[in-house]
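hey so i finaly got around to running the thing on Alkaline phosphatase from Aphis gossypii. pasting the sequence first so u can double check i didnt mess up the copy paste, my clipboard has been acting weird all day
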Amino acid sequence: MFLGDGMSVTTLTASRIYKGQMEKRSGENEYLSFEKFPFVGMSKTYCVDKQVADSACTATAYLTGVKANYETIGLSASVMLNDCPGSVMPENRTQSIADWSMAKGKAVGLVTTTRVTHASPSGLYAHSAHRDWESDAELAKAANLTDVTQCEDIAKQLITRSPGMDIKVILGGGREMFLLNDTVHNGSRTDMDLVEFWKNDKVKRFGKDKSAYIENREQLLNIDPSKTDYLLGLFGKSHMKFHLNANANLQPTLTEMTKKAIEVLKKEKNGFFLFVEGGLIDAAHHVTMARLALDETVEFSKAVQQAVDMTSEDDTLIVVTSDHSHTMMMAGYPVRGHDVLSLSGSQGSDNLPYTTLSYANGPENKKSDANCGREDLSKVDTSNPYYTYPKLVPLQFETHGGEDVMVFARGPWAHLFSGNYEQNTIPLMMGFAAGVGPAANMNGGPAAFTSAGLSTTTASSPLTILTSVLLMTAVIRRVCL
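ok and heres what it spat out for the 3d tokens, dont ask me to read them lol
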């Protein structure tokens, strides 16, 4: 599963044009790698309690099959935001496609350009009444809101609890969430060094030389996948740097991380599930830096192509989607081939030019004129990656958008991903295809993939089967607000 965080339809359109224009073509008729996949659908992204979703409730949906409340992770809608005691009750916790895959003997990996404890990846392994409880220090800040002594922070769940401790490949940012807050480690934790715990745990359980902890690109590229079963790579104190701002000698690309993850995981005789997130698309949109958002989308496209090149359509299902939209819009009537990141070539009724891309809301621009009119953009440098695009409503940060997002699929049972459906059906359909999770043993469904191959049994009515799975799954629980 590839997740472009905040990858709206407008982002896709503008990114394919940007990709083409970087290669000296007009761009409008270009394709991102996954836009060539044979099956396309759309998913509805709302939370149980919000029209416009965040990355936590959506991660719960597309990784566990259960719609949840805003900013909660791995929990049913019975748990409200900040309800620590409620989050530890077994009946309120959801199981993810990582749990399902491990139960069938498959390996699991996660790759992200954000902190590995951020909302999207944490949907694989964590149960938290607030997405911000990434370290024990962050959890302690909520002591005035709930009894924090009853639950654990997200980083600790990843390293010390199942399924997190059994994830074989973990690559991304967020080093500070795992290290102690002292002059040696410069982390944020007050209780324990989770990196050392991870190292010791892997040696104790699997012996020496079976695992590796790394912090830079050179170390990643030097990993021998034939000799490495467990790999933890933390390439930044917080999120990794934007591709356009990164030191290429120190920070690996999303494509390089994806390649190494597949090389390690493909050894597994029962197959694997890999989650890959292009998380900085979202981060760039939140500060209305459109060039960075488009560039991160193109980098995400390269990572998808890497996976396509390393796998077979006969036995590997690849699903590419987004968790939610953003408020970036593309408007005006620029001529074909015009720089999508520049001025549109037209003027507003105030006789001032405007950019092709803009946002419905976002960080306030301090350069508006004294009469409260629009900024004169005739002399702005839109080639600056840090140029913040115009927005209508001033806010501290740009918000998400609420419209549906695209889903692209390739491989066995990819046709199930056509049409328009609830976001939480995505992992159920993936599980159905792989023979894991609630749909694993449905009559007429495929058997689990093993070293003997994928069952050729087909279902006469997959939609009927999936409907029955949904009826058996706690999709949305009734909540008293």
